[in-house]
């Protein structure tokens, strides 16, 4: 079938390919701007498409024909492989070129109608007998499908590779000795390694369920997405699929942090593949993975979702993707950690953290928990025994810690603190110590708040749910408004009165005359023992309350002393004010001298007319007194 003169090969000169033959070329084919100077006969004997074009182009004129092949799969390089096959030059099939050769042979219609053992038949045989039966070859073949995905889909190349990989993942790899084990098929039925057919006794290491994560991570995003969907339809566990997606995301999204490889099997597999990572659009990857993620719950999975959400806010994904992540995290918010919720604000917002995102996740959690939003606040015993109380309490504790962490942001508004705290129902907090601590930190970071704003924030705290230590701290907290401090003292005193009343009731019960002795069973005796132990516990608690009451009395006494001191200071200030407004002080200030009144003069005359020995002795003292009083 070859033209006259043996063809030894092809040579390239610039942008032209020439055949090393004695005959001059009579047809020129152009593929992706590259000219191939060839001969009609070998092409027409193998390629149905070129034969039809040449038959239609034949006319009265003779000469070199110019044919342009548009959208040739694989470009000029793969066309050269097909041309070499037409000239009976050996063509080697490998996992890296089989897809392109398959598509090129189909494009050129190199079927059995145009020659026995044509290229399409050979490519199909190699693909079905070698490629889809080997894990590594399937991965390599899929990686070369990206430029020709439409053509490969038409030939069902991609679907066959995906189905083959799914079957292999479902099967124990130690049963087949696939190339990723680095031992090929040299394996005995017992699982030991063979050398020249001899049992060496060495055992193949057990392959874990995630052995395939690294291998499929070299696929592009569209092919990876289709592989996950195929595996899901095959019935592979959602935990394994989620693990593969987490591995893929950690590899191509640096914001998720470092991932640990750790397994020697994966390292050997990657070394044998010698593949380069796929070129991935991070935004497209994230939006695609979010659609594929199964509905799972767990601490590690929740942390992964929080990392995805952080990267999604950086990349600016669409609203649907962001809302899906927030909903998934909200449904398992009780498994989240504080550092995972501290998502920085990457937008033009003045705040340091993305508090709106956290608030939406809280609402998703409330809506996902049945009976929380509509049920009224139960008693403390009902909260303790309710099945849904543990997740709700964990979320309440987490939210209080989150508010305390973001409260130091000077740009955070009081309304946001209030909305975060009120997003959870009242029954979620058995104690309000965490909420009080968060608001106290906010007051410390925002000293310019008015008393009205502080009182509005303090209204979200139920002071009856504060512990003794929190009440003691609040009663001495200078950052709280005075009205709030008085409210704390009132509730603290009310609690003490209630406790003392209970203590007195216990004492009265103990001092009451004993009831007539009756024969009781073991159950009644056990009940009496439990009741007596309960009274002992109550008495001990009452003793502690008495100590707290004494402290409160001493505190009240100190406040009374301070109040008396303030009253004395006020009296001194009043006296000094009356003295400064007197006529004598004004006259002294001006420099005038006031004359003594007539009554005083007559008294002096009477005293001088009738001197007595005592008066004569005291006269100098009285004269000094008059002398000093004359200064006014």
From TrEMBL:
Region (Disordered): 599-632
SMART domains, per the entry: BTB
Skewed-composition ranges (Polar residues): 609-620
UniProt entry keywords in alphabetical sequence: Coiled coil, Ubl conjugation pathway
Keyword Cell inner membrane among record annotations: no
Pathway assigned to this chain's UniProt record: Protein modification; protein ubiquitination
GO biological process: protein ubiquitination
Keyword Lipoprotein included in the entry's annotation: no
Domain (NPH3): residue spans on this chain: 210-495
InterPro entries: BTB/POZ_dom (IPR000210), NPH3/RPT2-like (IPR043454), NPH3_dom (IPR027356), SKP1/BTB/POZ_sf (IPR011333)
Gene3D superfamilies, A to Z: Potassium Channel Kv1.1, Chain A (3.30.710.10)
Domain BTB: 25-95
Coiled-coil regions listed: 542-576
Basic residues: compositionally biased ranges: 622-632
Family of this protein: Belongs to the NPH3 family.
UniProt name for this protein: BTB/POZ domain-containing protein At3g44820
